[in-house]
């Protein structure tokens, strides 16, 4: 495998490249990520994506370091799959995706699931808003939240009432919930913004920015960092997050694998 080295911990990957996704989504102490490999500042490791069963192999890094890992990808997947039969996904930095699909084409059926960006910030947000935000309860407000998401965004990763949200914020107008969002916790223990949605009749009023800013401030207050994921094609949302201080760490492309 050339310069590829199997590593015994995520901390070893972080020692080679202090990557925010590895630090705040996977976590230095994660056992789920093993087996894992490094090649220069590139790495390949296992991850259990939220809202999905099974495991995904992530592969990231600059092309020169990552291409040996891509060349070895069939062997890495075979090796990891012997002890992790639930390994059915592959997520790569987008600039590596085409090469990986080409390398695996004779062994796997590789289908693109979607392109998404992972962002983070360490800074609180200063924002003025006329909207009054209030904390919601995951249990007692679950029915109202479910009805709201059914209209505002049925595909939002919100999960009210399931105990996965540690903190909820919402905005009501004349008693009706018109915006909401939540904080989940990554496997590494970092706050992760999710389920940010605005009722269609209230869009372009600054509500999305207000909820995002307030959740960001709560996350930074709790842990010194806020993280989020967004579909890469959602240029308007990415532009908003950038204005609020977020930086893209990875533009990912996720796939399903069938032997």
Tell me what the structure shows.
Helices cover 32% and strands 33% of the residues. The chain is α+β, with helices and mostly antiparallel strands. The protein has 2 domains: 5-119 and 251-258, Aminopeptidase (3-Layer(aba) Sandwich); 133-224, 3-Layer(aba) Sandwich (Aminopeptidase). The chain has a 12-stranded mixed β-sheet with strand order 1-2-3-4-5-12-6-11-10-9-8-7. A hairpin with a 7-residue loop joins strand 3 (42-47) and strand 4 (55-60). The relative contact order is 0.17. The model has no long low-confidence stretch (mean pLDDT 95). This is GNAT family N-acetyltransferase. Residues 129-259 form the N-acetyltransferase domain. InterPro entries: Acyl_CoA_acyltransferase, GNAT_dom.
Question: What proportion of the residues form beta strands (DSSP E)?
Answer: 25-35%
CATH architecture of the largest domain: 3-Layer(aba) Sandwich
Number of strands: 12
Strand order of the largest sheet: 1-2-3-4-5-12-6-11-10-9-8-7
Count of alpha and pi helical runs: 8
CATH class of the largest domain: Alpha Beta
The total domain count is 2
Order of helices and strands: EHHEEEHHEHEEHEEEHEHE
Give the termini separation: 22 Å
Which blocks of ≥5 consecutive residues have pLDDT under 50?
Answer: none
Domain N-acetyltransferase: 129-259
InterPro entries: Acyl_CoA_acyltransferase, GNAT_dom
Organism: Branchiibius cervicis
Protein name: GNAT family N-acetyltransferase
